C-alpha cells in the first residue's frame, strides 16, 4: 500500500487509523447498501466471522501489506476499494480468496526498485 506520494505507509498512527476504519466500515454488511443492490444471502448471515485487519511492514521489499479477513457478502470488495480511494491508498497487488462464508484478501504495494 502506498500513500498519495507513492511511498510505503509507515506511520504507526496512520496505519492504526486505517485498520480501525476498515474494521468499522466492514463489520456490518447493512452499513453499505448504497453500493450494492443485492442483499446478503440468508445462509451467510448466520455465520459469525469476525472482521480482522492486519497491516504489516515488509522492510526487505519496502512495502506495506494489508490482510483482511471478513464474512463474505455482496459488495465487500467494492466497499474495500471505496475505502482505499477515500484514504488515498494505491495498490499494486491483491490476492482475493473466498473460503465458503469467509474471505481472506491480501493487498500490497509494489516492491521498490533499486536505483542503478
Which consecutive residue ranges, at least 5 long each, have pLDDT under 50? Answer: none
Strand content: 25-35%
- Over the alpha carbons, how many angstroms does the gyration radius reach? 15 Å
Oligomeric composition of the shown chains: single chain
Under CATH, the topology is which?
A: Alpha-Beta Plaits
- Major beta sheet, specifics? 4 strands, antiparallel
Domain module tally: 1
Instruction: Give the mean pLDDT.
Output: 78
Given helix and strand content, the structural type is alpha+beta
Q: Termini, distance in Å?
A: 24 Å
Write out the strand line-up for the largest beta sheet, numbering strands in chain order: 1-2-4-3
Could you say what the CATH architecture is?
A: 2-Layer Sandwich
Helical content band? 25-40%
Instruction: State the name of the first-level CATH class.
Output: Alpha Beta
Helical run tally:
3
Order of helices and strands: HHEEHEE
Number of strand segments: 4
What would the principal axes of the Cα set say about the shape? globular
List the helices and strands and how they pair.
Blueprint: H1 12-26, H2 42-45, E1 52-58, E2 63-71, H3 76-86, E3 93-99, E4 102-108
Antiparallel strand pairs: 1-2, 2-4, 3-4
Nutshell version of this structure?
With 116 residues, the chain is of the alpha+beta class. It is built from three helices and four strands, in the order ααββαββ. The longest helix has 15 residues, at 12-26.
Task: Describe this protein's structure.
This protein has 116 residues and is α+β, with helices and mostly antiparallel strands. The protein has a single domain (12-108), classed as 2-Layer Sandwich (Alpha-Beta Plaits). The chain has 3 helices and 4 strands; from the N terminus they run H-H-E-E-H-E-E. It has helices spanning 12-26, 42-45, 76-86; strands at residues 52-58, 63-71, 93-99, 102-108. It has a 4-stranded antiparallel β-sheet, with helices on one face. Strand 3 and strand 4 (102-108) form a beta hairpin. Helix 1 (12-26) runs antiparallel to helix 3 (76-86). The chain starts with 11 loop residues before the first helix and ends in an 8-residue tail after the last strand. The mean pLDDT is 78.
Amino acid at each position: 500500500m502506498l500513500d498519495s506520494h507513492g511511498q510505503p505507509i509507515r506511520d504507526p498512527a496512520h496505519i492504526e487509523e486505517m485498520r480501525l476504519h476498515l474494521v468499522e466500515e466492514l463489520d456490518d454488511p447493512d452499513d453499505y447498501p448504497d453500493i450494492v443492490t443485492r442483499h446478503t444471502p440468508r445462509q451467510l448471515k448466520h455465520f459469525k466471522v469476525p472482521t480482522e485487519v492486519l497491516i504489516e511492514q515488509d522492510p526487505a521489499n519496502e512495502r506495506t501489506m494489508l490482510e483482511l479477513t471478513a464474512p463474505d457478502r455482496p459488495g465487500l470488495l467494492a466497499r474495500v476499494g471505496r475505502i482505499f480511494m477515500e484514504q488515498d491508498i494505491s495498490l499494486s497487488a491483491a490476492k482475493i480468496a473466498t473460503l465458503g462464508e469467509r474471505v481472506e484478501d491480501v493487498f500490497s504495494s509494489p516492491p521498490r526498485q533499486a536505483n542503478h
